[in-house]
Amino acid sequence: DVKVTQSSRYLVKRTGEKVFLECVQDMDHENMFWYRQDPGLGLRLIYFSYDVKMKEKGDIPEGYSVSREKKERFSLILESASTNQTSMYLCASKTGGLAGDRTDTQYFGPGTRLTVL
Amino acid sequence: GESVGLHLPTLSVQEGDNSIINCAYSNSASDYFIWYKQESGKGPQFIIDIRSNMDKRQGQRVTVLLNKTVKHLSLQIAATQPGDSAVYFCAGWEGGSYIPTFGRGTSLIVHP
Fold this sequence. Notes:
The complex is a heterodimer.
Chain A: E1 4-6, E2 10-13, E3 19-25, E4 31-38, E5 42-49, E6 56-57, E7 64-70, E8 73-78, E9 87-94, E10 107-108, E11 112-116
Parallel strand pairs in A: 2-11
Antiparallel strand pairs in A: 1-3, 3-8, 4-5, 4-9, 5-6, 7-8, 9-10, 9-11
Chain B: E1 4-6, E2 10-14, E3 19-25, E4 30-38, E5 45-51, E6 56-58, E7 62-67, E8 72-77, E9 86-94, E10 101-102, E11 106-111
């Protein structure tokens, strides 16, 4: 089974702090994604990466950056945390190529609930 | 662009009933769909998928129906159990895209 792990389940940070959220997948997937999930808004894509050192902006990249130095690890960075970044953050991974096959399913991690005070 | 949404935010059913959760999409180029289940405090989990060349797919106690004419898909859960209580949401991909569009979710509440 695919396993996607996230470094923390719960995190509390203060405004202005630099925050690192780590995601690791063990299935050699090319593509990795970071989403945030807020009540009433569903999943919104922050950034994704289709290869090592490659990254693409999603729908809401402002205030975030990412790093993909190794294939299995995709990090989300909040350069200066703000209260409006309090949210559930979900990492996902999938095989390379385009959607359409069962093997292209996105697999999600358990999520990190971040609170910024 | 793609827009995927759900008709009802909350669905309450009795244990043993069948549940139907609906999802509409706007982009006729969408050709692959997934239903996810997300339990409280957990990440979404794959339930079942369907491609646009199919109109029905069955799993264990779940069936997904796709109506391309009206751009609608549904998730049917047979003999709903308390363990089925969760948020369910659909995701759709347009052919050639890495990125899905997610519906906002329906909360299924199963009463014993």
